[in-house]
Structure formats: C-alpha cells, structure tokens
Amino acid sequence: MTSPDTERFIADVLSRIGARGVTTAHDDLAPWLSDWRGRYHGAACALLSPASTEDVVAIVEESRRHRVALVPQGGNTSMVGGATPDQDGRAAILSLRRLNRIRDLSADAGTAIAEAGVILSDLHDAAAGIGCRFPLTLGARGSATIGGLISTNAGGTQVLRFGTMRALVAGVEAVLPDGQVYRGLAPLKKDNRGYSIDQLLIGAEGTLGVVTAATLRLVPAIVDRGVAWVGLESPHAALALLRRLERATDRIESFEIIPGDSLALVLDHIPGTRAPLAGRHAWHVLIEAVVTDTSGEAPARLLERLLADALGDGVGDDAVVAASEAQAEAMWRIRDSLSEAERAAGPAVQHDISVPVASMPDFMIDGVAAMERAWPGTHATAFGHLGDGNVHFHVRAPAGVDRDAWYATDAHRITAMVHDLVVAAGGSISAEHGIGQMKRDELARLGDPARLAALRAIKSAFDPLGLFNPGKLVPLAPSADAP
Amino acid sequence: MTSPDTERFIADVLSRIGARGVTTAHDDLAPWLSDWRGRYHGAACALLSPASTEDVVAIVEESRRHRVALVPQGGNTSMVGGATPDQDGRAAILSLRRLNRIRDLSADAGTAIAEAGVILSDLHDAAAGIGCRFPLTLGARGSATIGGLISTNAGGTQVLRFGTMRALVAGVEAVLPDGQVYRGLAPLKKDNRGYSIDQLLIGAEGTLGVVTAATLRLVPAIVDRGVAWVGLESPHAALALLRRLERATDRIESFEIIPGDSLALVLDHIPGTRAPLAGRHAWHVLIEAVVTDTSGEAPARLLERLLADALGDGVGDDAVVAASEAQAEAMWRIRDSLSEAERAAGPAVQHDISVPVASMPDFMIDGVAAMERAWPGTHATAFGHLGDGNVHFHVRAPAGVDRDAWYATDAHRITAMVHDLVVAAGGSISAEHGIGQMKRDELARLGDPARLAALRAIKSAFDPLGLFNPGKLVPLAPSADAP
Fold this sequence. Notes:
The structure is a homodimer of 483-residue chains.
Chain A: H1 4-17, E1 22-23, H2 26-29, E2 46-48, H3 53-66, E3 70-73, E4 92-95, E5 102-106, E6 111-115, H4 120-129, E7 132-133, H5 146-151, H6 159-162, H7 165-168, E8 169-175, E9 181-184, H8 197-201, E10 210-217, E11 219-220, E12 224-232, H9 235-248, E13 252-259, H10 260-269, E14 283-291, H11 299-312, E15 318-321, H12 325-336, H13 338-344, E16 348-354, H14 360-374, E17 379-385, E18 390-396, H15 403-424, H16 440-446, H17 449-462
Parallel strand pairs in A: 2-4, 3-4
Antiparallel strand pairs in A: 1-2, 5-6, 6-10, 7-11, 8-9, 8-10, 12-14, 12-15, 13-14, 13-17, 16-18, 17-18
Helix pairs in contact in A: 1-3, 9-14, 10-13
Domain FAD-binding PCMH-type (chains A, B): 40-221
Protein name (chains A, B): FAD-binding oxidoreductase
Keywords (chains A, B): FAD, Flavoprotein
C-alpha cells in the first residue's frame, strides 16, 4: 500500500540517487521483506540501494523531509527480525549491499577499511591475500555484511581471544539521523575527545545511524592449529580445564562444551560422524589452539603437553589431539552439526543467552534441571561457547506433541522462564543476536530500569522523529515526537 | 559565597549521608579546589564524600532537588582541569575517595571489582597478591583512582598490548543524573542488549553519570621482562622495526621513541644518566617485551634474536639488550626523565595528541619542522608512544624570552597551530588526557560538526539539568534547560 507521501518520497530519492538505486516492483522487493528463517514478514514502499555515502545522505534527507522511516539491511541474516520492516508498508528498506568496496587494506597497519556492504567472507579472502586474518567468523559469513556485523556487535567462534566486533572496530563512518556524516574512520589507538560515538553505533541495530564503512583490525594469519577433544564429568571440570589452559598459554581460540547426549544425537542423525573418544563421557570439550609463526611449539604439541598435565592432575577424564587436518575437521563437524541434530530430534525453542563465565557451570546444570522440572517431558540442553559465558540453551518439546500447537502454547512461556533464570544469574537475554523485534518485549519486561531509561534517552536524542529502524531494540521515550 | 540554595542543599545532604561525608570548612576544602598543577582554581559550596553507592544516590537526588551542580573528583590528577569546579562557588565537589573497597578479586575469573575511589597502585598490589596484574599504569598511579581512570579512559605505557581503560573495563556501576543506579558489573563477555552504557560512561569525564564501581580485567603476572635500546636514523625506521617485531611476536608491551636531542638533554640535566649506546644516533627506541610463564624463550633472548635479524636487514643502526634489571631500570629512567629534562631546558608548551600510527613518522618530522619554521627560535620535539600513534609534542620557547610573557602571548597560538596540524593529519587533539575545561574550546573549534552534535545530544539526553560536571567536555545543546 503506497500512500501519496511515500510516492513523493520515492520520486525525490530517485531523482537524487538514480533509478538503479530504487526498486519498487513487488517481485524484486519480496526476498527482502522476510527474514531468512521466515519468521517475520513485513512490507515496504521501496528498496533503496545507495552506491555511496553521499547517496545515503540524500536518502536520509528525503526520509526526514517526507517522514518516511528507513529499515537498514545488510545480508538479511538477522536472528531476531532486526532487518525486517513492519507490516504497514510505509517504511523503505535501505540496503547497503551496493556499498561493497574495500577502500583500504594494509598488512603493515593491520587494518582494513571496508564499506558496510562488504560480505564477511570477502573480507576474510582479502585479508588472507595480504597474509592477515580478520579474526571474527560465524555461520552466515557468506551473506552477513560488515555493516550488519557492526550493528549487531556480532560474535562467533573466536571471541575467546579477540572479542566481539566491539573490540575489532577501530573506527566507524555513519550517516546520523540528522543527515550529517560522522567521519570516524581514522584508526586512532588513543583518542579521548569525549563519548565514543563508534562504540555507541556498534550494536545499535541501525536505530541511531546507518553505518556506511568501518576501519577494522586485522591480525597475522594462522600458520598452524591444534585441535583436541576432551571427555570430562561436568561443566565445572570443563571450566577448571579452561582456567588451567588460560594460565598456561594465550594461544587458545576456541573452547566449546558439548553434553554427552548432544554428541549422541549427532552420531545418530548426522551421517559419517563418529565419536572422537572410545569411552562414554557425560561432557565433552572441543579446543583449538593456533599460532601465527613457526618459531615456537607447534599448537598440537602444546595441547598434548597441557592436556597430559591436566589429566594427570585429574582435570578431565580422557583426551585426544587431532593427528591431521582431516581429524580436526571431523571434530569441528560434530560441533557444527549440533543444531541440525537437535532439530532432527524434534521441535525445540532455542535461546541465545549469556551469564558470567564463573556462573556458567552451575547454570548449565541447575538451569537445565529447573526447566525439565517445570515442563515435564521436555529435554533441555546447553552447549557452546563456555569460555565466553555464552551457550545455546535449547528446550525440546515432549515426544509426540503437535509441533504447531506446542509452539503456539508452551514455547513463549518456556522462553520467558529461561530468560527469568538468566536474569537471576546476572546474565543477558541476548548474548549475540541482539534485540531486534523478537526480544523487544522481553527486554522491556526484564531490563534494569536505569538501563532502559538510558537506552530510550539515547534513542530519542539521536532519532527524535523515530525514522531509523522503528520498532526495533527500544521504543522512543514517551515524550518524543513520533512520526 | 554560599547562597541560601546551597545551604539547604548541604543541610539535606548532611541529614542523609551524615556529617563525615560533608566538609565545608575553607581550609579542608582548599586542597581540592585547584588542580594538581595549579593551573585551575575554583570554588565550591562543599566537599561531599559518600561512603556508598546509596550515599551517591542521596547526593544526586538532593542535587536535582536543589539544582546544585556536582563536580566528581577522584585523585584530582586531571591534566585538563577536569575535576576542578568553576569559580562561582555554587557547585559541590563529589569526592569518591571513601568509596575505596575492592569488592571482589578473582584470579580464576581474571577480574577485580573495584569501587571508584580505589587508588591504582592499591589495585596493582591487590592483583599482584593473587598472581595477577592489572595491565594499565601511569605516573600518577599513587593518586589516580579507578573512577577517574575510567572517566578519562586513561592510557599509559602498556596500551600497545592491552589497550586503554576502554578495553579493560568489563562492567560499570554508576549513578545516572536521573538518580537511578545503572548496575552493569556482571562481567559478560557477550551481551547485546542494546547500546553499551558501559562504553558511554568510559571517557565521559563525569558529565553523564558518576561511576561508583567497575569490574576490571586482570591478566597473568609478568615473570620476566627484556628491555632493549636501539639507535636508528628516523621515525620511519622505528616504525619499520615495530612492524617487524609485531609480526614476529605478541610479547612487546612498550615501544617508546626518543629523539637524539632529547636524550642529550636528559644526559645534560639528569644526574647519573648515561647513554645506553656508544655512538650518536638521530633517534632511539626503548622496547620492552614480557612473558607470563617460563616455558618459552626468555624475553631478553627474544629481543636479542629479533633485533640481530632487524639490524642484519638494515632496520636499526645499533642495539643493546639490558643484561640486568639495573640496566633495564637505567634505560627506563632516561625515558621517564624526558619531561623533567625538557622543563629544565626552558619554558615550553606540551601537547597530548595522536595521529594514525602509519602517519606518525611523517608527522614527527614535518610537524616539528613546520612549528620551528612558523615560530623562529622555538625548538619542537616529539617523543613517546610511537606504537600507539601518541606522542608528547613539546614546543620550547626561544632562548632568553620572558617566560610569563611568552606563555601569555605565543603559547596559545602555538597550541592552536599544533592542533591544526593534528587535525589535518586525521588525528586527535586529546590522545590521553581528555577535554576537561582546558581543551573545551579547541574541541568546539576543531571537532567534526556531526561528532559535536552527537556529543551535545547525548549530554542533553542524560543530564538535561546540566548538573553533572558542568563546563567540562561539552556544553549542553542550546535548547536545554540549564540550571
């Protein structure tokens, strides 16, 4: 449904950025109106595809003039509906995909300047081409864009050593809701000129500005890795092992915990997988150590030495270090197949949560038990990034229930209870995926009042007209002049 | 001058936090009304010393009720007048020094929870007591407090490896201007519940809230260090050497550059110093490498090996690795005496600036030359943290000028020109010290308009009454309701 306002908006944008940047045909719009998992479906008056920062400024100026909201979108891989417009059809999708140049790349400086639409795997390739690495990766790397990764403060599997995007962004360029360009790309290691606008835009989900480019940290390329699999009796033993390793070396990049029954599911459902260890263990961890030069101890030798010591001291029950890349890949395949195996086992609700690392072992035991007690017949599982205090917390439906009915009735109440447990443990209801539209009400229900008031105050200060990704993350403060 | 408003405010605060927390006697107030370098002199109606976060809440509530502004103060070691009140005497100093408990300390978790008034050297000692290190240090460590270090995003001499406070703070507790307590101490490695309030408060100079406590990252204690001195022909050779070392190892914690004439000044003016190398060199670098376990190569051997390779390839002219702790201390004493030696050589204006690391060698040569050309008879020098893109940039007065007259006439214009050069090089007019009252006008003159508008919007959103450290960092937006 296109109202006269949006028609004039589209005509004015078209006159400023050209026809190639404006799509209104229904079939061309359709793929971008739903999230990739098909949970959220919206409508939009147009898909706008600027080719430059100046084009974005033009779009933002027209958006202000005509009071047409903008929904920024990168690779459309949000897990929380963060890039899907609402259903009234008056907003425009602002796609950053044409802003896809790597403006600069320097092994010496250890930085890349990438535009918002650069796809993560393309950045990986470019960095590798100069003997470097951008040390953040995740499943959607073939679609996810730098702008989206920044706007959601993405994490992934290498956070243990290098942190999330928040630690990897050295500078941001963005168009703010007032139409001004914030130019923060200079990679200054020390800069104390007031509040960090860079850090404010990281994780802001496009509600405070449109990220158009960023300066990113690169690190030396990996020259060798060691991968090990350890069987142990509890998450507490796993955390004790992690602490030992962290004291002994700073080469550990991954430390993933897997319950015995999740491993069994993988072995049952995923063809070609086999258990890395002979015996049965209640819990498992997958560890990866890497080096960036060959002058020191090989990472496989390092892991063998440290794990032999640990097992000798009773920390861990059995361990094996991959003897080849093929064995290492096979271990990672088990980890990467956990979600697929869980899905094959029946309908489940999944949660992306974090608690302080020190609290995680208790949470993994007590939280799972509390859920299964409260919801008889369900099966709860927690697995993933123990070292980040971030696990995937799945609750599988009782055997034989009707999938749709269960999702319609119990699933939301189960999620609310998981979130209550997380808050009681001092944790976060969104570790990695952000708030988007999916968790907005839960954030409002469970957020600390001081934090919520601060979020609303910032949103209202930056975007008093409410034109930047409305309906996501946080509502405007009540007094604000909504469109 | 105490007006009736402030009298009622003081009485109400006293009834809520007790007499021990309220000082109004002139002699007791005096030491806190000037900055430690004696450049700024203010007045205050009282010195308030809360003993708990709840006391701070009470003070903020009374501050709102009576419209009395608060000037947060920690160790009073600001370099930019950031903790000194203005001269009208209606504000109160809010001293955090009694909030000085270390609430928690864990080698396992690698964290400390310290209240705002904990002195940095006390935190160093506490961390050392559990085999850990808080990896940030600076000259004022015996006075500077955690709250002040956070509020100024302090840096120091170990930023190369561990970053500034921004990278070392895992969580913040603060009282916001609306009187609510923001409780963000839980050390969550992944947390995507919207804009980072922690990061917003870091470097905010007390203008957005009063930091009352923080969760800080600890790292393993150092067990061995190696210190080396290298003579080279240019800052470009120094940067080339740094890049080589960074590619070869991640053990380098300091990389300080010193011009030959600054070394000569130290040797002339500081008793007991001697040149580490026999020959004359145009430039020098001081390098420190550390290890936290003894299983690998000793850091002195590492430096010997890497420097021999570098010199063999023509990067660097001569080098010596300290053979003892005494030699290492003697090298550091030269570096630490540079400011004192510069002062002994005559009146100078100093600047705390940064540019991108890759631009620093040109800036050190061209910037110094431009200043000496524009101000005949002056002597300009740049030295310090090359690896952070942050040097001390001194301009010494022509020989024989009257000190006071020179400061009154030329100094400000010289500073403005240094700042212009920094901005032209894409740098920051405040690398480490913040803006405070000293650089506020320069920030307003030189700041990117989009950045300035964003700073003002945030300030007005958090502190619409303008009661938190008024006159520092950024003014309220014009429309705001000032007190």
